[in-house]
């Protein structure tokens, strides 16, 4: 495990797991949302592909994302391991709702200095809406990718419950 993708639905805990695995294995962790959003008003990084190419050319890395469409294949082709948080909606929705509520109330700055807002809750781009609407599609895409012959060399670990993930993480020492 040197080049690791942590994948799953919004709110599954990808960043938390990626950070923990990175610390335990001494693998540099890169947050995809920070790479993707680089400025105010959710400005998208125009150099994303170049940045991801640079990061994935390193001998060791961990990224917390299936990858945005423009870098998805690149990430999957360069990875040697996929950690899939395949949690049910009943697990992820309370998580994403608590996180978004906390971020909105505290006006916490996130990617590119942006903040979640009360008005943002009405948008289909809001994490809560996104997590709900994209859950089934994301699960199907990850499953399809793991079964694709070109990604057969990947070591894939699929976790259906947070307890399974925690037990596996404990084995990393």
Question: How would you sum up this structure, described in words?
Answer:
By secondary structure, this protein is of the alpha/beta class. The protein has a single domain, classed as P-loop containing nucleotide triphosphate hydrolases (Rossmann fold, 3-Layer(aba) Sandwich), CATH 3.40.50.300. It has seven helices and seven strands, in the order E-H-E-H-E-E-H-E-H-E-H-H-E-H. The strands form two sheets. The chain has a five-stranded parallel beta sheet, sandwiched between helices. A two-stranded antiparallel ribbon has the order 3-4. Helix 5 crosses helix 6. The radius of gyration is 16 Å and the shape is globular. The model has no long low-confidence stretch (mean pLDDT about 95).
SSE order, one letter for each helix or strand = EHEHEEHEHEHHEH
Proportion of beta-strand residues: 15-25%
Q: Sum up the overall morphology in one term.
A: globular
Spatial separation of the terminal alpha carbons: 14 Å
Q: Can you give the mean pLDDT?
A: 94
Spatial ordering of strands, largest sheet = 2-5-1-6-7
């Amino acid at each position: 495990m040197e080049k690791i993708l942590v994948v799953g639905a919004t709110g599954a805990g990808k960043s938390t797991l990626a950070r923990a695995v990175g610390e335990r294995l001494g693998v540099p962790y890169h947050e995809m949302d920070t790479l993707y959003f680089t400025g105010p008003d959710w400005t998208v990084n125009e150099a994303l592909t170049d940045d991801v190419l640079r990061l994935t050319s390193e001998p060791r890395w961990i990224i917390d994302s299936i990858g945005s469409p423009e870098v998805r294949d690149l990430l999957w082709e360069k990875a040697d391991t996929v950690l899939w948080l395949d949690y049910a909606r009943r697990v992820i929705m309370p998580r994403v709702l608590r996180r978004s509520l906390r971020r909105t109330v505290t006006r916490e700055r996130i990617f590119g200095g942006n903040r979640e807002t009360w008005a943002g809750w009405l948008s289909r781009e809001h994490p809560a809406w996104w997590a709900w609407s994209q859950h089934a599609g994301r699960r199907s895409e990850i499953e399809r990718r793991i079964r694709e012959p070109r990604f057969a060399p990947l070591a894939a670990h699929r976790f259906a419950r947070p307890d399974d993930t925690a037990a596996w993480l404990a084995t990393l020492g």
